[in-house]
Amino acid sequence: MGMSTRITGFVSPENKDYKKHSKVLIACIGAGVSELPKETAEYFNCKYPEEYLLEEKLEIKIPKHVYRDDDIDGFEIIVSEIPEGVHKIRFVNSW
After folding, report:
1. Band of the pLDDT at 19, cuts 50, 70, 90?
2. Which domain, by its residues, includes 82?
3. CA 9/CA 76 separation, integer angstroms
4. How many domains is the chain partitioned into structurally?
5. pLDDT tens readout for residues 41-50
6. Region 70-87: what's the mean pLDDT?
7. Any idea what DSSP says for residue 36?
8. What angle do CA 29, 32, 35 make, to 5 degrees?
9. What pLDDT score was predicted for residue 1?
10. What is the DSSP annotation of the chain?
């Protein structure tokens, strides 16, 4: 049986940019607006006001590099490559 590792970063829901754009997104959903304003669409990488974007934006892909040495396999995270705004990184192993 093999094991896989997933590495995910998370933006705080208290992040200034997230709070600003999530308010705009929620207002657009409530008002029945069909497309987000340009800046908010770029932030969420989607031009349509969809509720799932609120949760999706909190998760950020963390660049990882495979590390191998003799009988060891793993991942390295280069700190300077962590996207701005990430306040937590989660390592999940599954079998």
Report:
1. very high
2. 4-94
3. 14
4. 1
5. 999 999 999 9
6. 90
7. -
8. 75
9. 67
10. ---EEEEEEEE-TT-HHHHHHHHHHHHHHHHT-SS--HHHHHHHT-SS--THHHHHTTEEEPP-EEEEETTEEEEE--GGGSPTTEEEEEEEEE-
What tokens does 68 get? 């191998």
Closest CA to 86 of 2, 3, 7, 9: 9
pTM of the model: 0.69
Question: Can you tell me which residue has the tokens 């094991």?
Answer: 3
Give whole-number Cα distances, 17 to 25, 48, 56, 81, in Å. Answer: 12, 18, 15, 20
Positive or negative, the CA dihedral 63, 68, 73, 76 is negative
Q: Are 16 and 85 in contact (CB under 8 A)?
A: no
Which residue type is seen at 15?
N
Confidence of residue 38 (pLDDT cuts 50, 70, 90): very high
Strands of 86-94's sheet in order across: 59-61, 4-11, 86-94
